[in-house]
Amino acid sequence: MGSDLVHVLLVSFPAQGHINPLLRLAKRLASKGLLVTFSTTEAIAHMMQKANNNITATNTLTPIGKGYLRFDFFSDGWDVDHPQRNDLDAYMVQLNSVGPTSLADLIERQASEGRRVSCVINNPFSPWVLDVATDMGIPCGVLWVQSCAVFSTYYHYLHNLAKFPTSSEPHISVQLPGMPLLKADDLPSFLLPGTPYGCLTELILGQFKNLSKASWVMVDSFDELENSILESISPLVPITPIGPLFKSIDTESDSTSVRGDMWKAVDCLEWLDSHSPASVIYISFGSVVVLGGDQMEEMAWGLRNSKRPFLWVVRPTENSADTRLPKGFLEEIEGQGKVVQWCPQDRVLSHPSIACFVTHCGWNSTMESLSCGIPIIAFPQWGDQITNAKFISDVYGVGLRLGHPKGGPLVTRGEVERCVAEMTDGGPKAEEIKKNSMKWKEAAVKAVSIGGSSDKNIQAIVDDVRGRAENQNGPKADV
Ligand code: UDX
Asked: Which one of the listed residues 7, 18, 156, 351 is annotated catalytic?
């Protein structure tokens, strides 16, 4: 084709919550006239290719807006079905030791095939990507895939810039710049003394290790949503909001065709079409959270007793998904509810039949719901989800809390039923939440529209990447 495009390589940590925002960024950058290669491990590529039709061969270019998207993967040194693949500690050791060489090979191959990489962008869960890029003299950036509030909280904790709960003072509240007072129960749970997820705390704080090597730190959020926090953290780390990446006006038609699902999505849109506007409760706890058996049972009967139509994503575990549902449940809900193992959540949340979203408050789910104007029933389980739930209910005003703020004790079927009723019965609280949800939807759409705050930020980064590429020697990608 002969056109001369600047080539950017995006490297995703192998997890759904990282792949989705990074792939959306890939499409956004391509739409602005770059050649973008999206990369993650071969094992994840295998899952993505099984679940989606168009995660294509490495030599295929998908045109998106003014640019192109392609895929190219690297090995983590383990077979797809390696027995330790689900052991996070062991896997991190493997990825961190094999990943750098595999990635360096991939980058060198791009140059030898006439697509010299001018910029590398990763999620900070793999800080070594920044080492590889800088050692090869390539400018790099990171995409933070959680909220700015959570970024700032971790940053203050890591650098001892505020007093946090300790084993001798476990209940103290934390005041951080630009944020409401956070009680211990509002903090990302990995920072609490006695957290059972020590390895995750290390992984999360490790994300900050190499940030100074990044020329751009981007966040999937938008200025209007987290303005006071962005302003207060910027003197410490300049961080640029470019979201919600999910709402990419100029790539919407292409977005529907290239998806990064790790599991095959069940098409439930026809089922949603058969329901009245704002009538269906959507329930999903993302790609990692697994509810305990007792909690599954209470959630199930609470939904059935609510008498509202519902769509519930229950991911399979090692056993089958069905066995995690109470006996006889699927028969009981015939004509009322639908249970699927994975769905196209972006399309579900955009469907007019959805009334509200019962979510674990992962940041992607939070941003997607907020961008679609869907009220939230917040049921956080751990980590940043706890802090997101605090902001959802008390700061953005778009949701109700289900159960104890910290998670933990069982939430009964009665509480599930009561919360669903409160959100859907049209009382003053529900009306206020709906109004706020619509307000944030409009702000989100505006932020990513041409000339909006996030669009301008992303354009400035694209211009900067292009400017630096022009100053580098050698040919650009010949596509
Ligand atoms: C993880 C962490 O758990 C979360 O706390 C952190 O904020 C991000 O990384 P995850 O638990 O998977 O993410 O949740 P979330 O951030 O909500 O991401 C899940 C993604 O999967 C969303 O983009 C959602 O749209 C998608 N999804 C989920 C589907 O496409 N279909 C489904 O059926 C369920």
From this structure: 18
Q: How far does residue 287's CA lie from ligand 1's centre (Å)? A: 5
Q: How far is the CA of 373 from the centre of ligand 1 (A)?
A: 18
242 and 107 belong to one structural domain? yes
> Do 11 and 152 reside in the same domain of the chain?
yes
Distance from Cα 403 to the centre of ligand 1, integer Å: 21
Residue 347: exposed, middle, or buried by beta-carbon count in 10 A (0-12, 13-18, 19+)? middle
Q: Which atom of ligand 1 is nearest to the CA of 361?
A: 17
Residues of the domain holding 305 = 269-442
Q: Do 343 and 229 share a structural domain? A: no
Alpha carbon of 105 to ligand 1 centroid (Å): 30
Q: Is 275 considered catalytic here?
A: no
pTM here? 0.95
Domain of 225, CATH number, reads: 3.40.50.2000
Helices of type H across 234-361: 252-257, 269-273, 293-306, 329-332, 345-349
- Residues in contact with ligand 1 by the CB-under-6-Å rule are 16-17, 20, 145-146, 261, 284, 286-289, 313, 342-346, 362-365, 368, 383-385
Same domain for 175 and 317? Answer: no
pLDDT in tens, the chain (479 residues): 435 899 999 999 999 999 999 999 999 999 999 999 999 999 999 999 999 987 876 778 999 999 999 999 999 999 988 999 988 889 999 999 999 999 999 999 999 999 999 999 998 889 999 999 999 999 999 999 999 999 999 999 999 999 999 999 999 999 999 999 999 999 999 999 888 777 788 888 888 989 999 999 999 999 999 999 999 999 999 999 999 998 865 444 554 578 999 999 998 999 999 999 999 999 999 999 999 999 999 999 999 999 999 999 999 876 666 678 999 999 999 999 999 999 999 999 999 999 999 999 999 999 999 999 999 999 999 999 999 999 999 999 999 999 865 556 899 999 999 999 999 998 999 999 999 999 999 999 999 999 999 999 999 999 999 999 988 755 456 55
378 shares its domain with 422: yes
Looking at the structure, do residues 415 and 460 belong to the same domain, yes or no? Answer: no
Residue 174 included in any domain: yes
Same domain for 53 and 171? yes
Task: List CB contacts of 324: < 8 A, sequence separation 6 or more.
Answer: 293, 296, 314, 317
* Same domain membership, residue 305 and residue 161: no
244 cis-preceded (ω within 30 degrees of 0): yes
**Residue from 23, 287, 339 to probe ligand 1 pocket by mutation (most atoms less than 8 Å from CB):** 287
Amino acid (1-letter code) at residue 153: T
Helix boundaries (H) for 307-394: 329-332, 345-349, 363-372, 384-390
Overall size of the chain counted in residues: 479
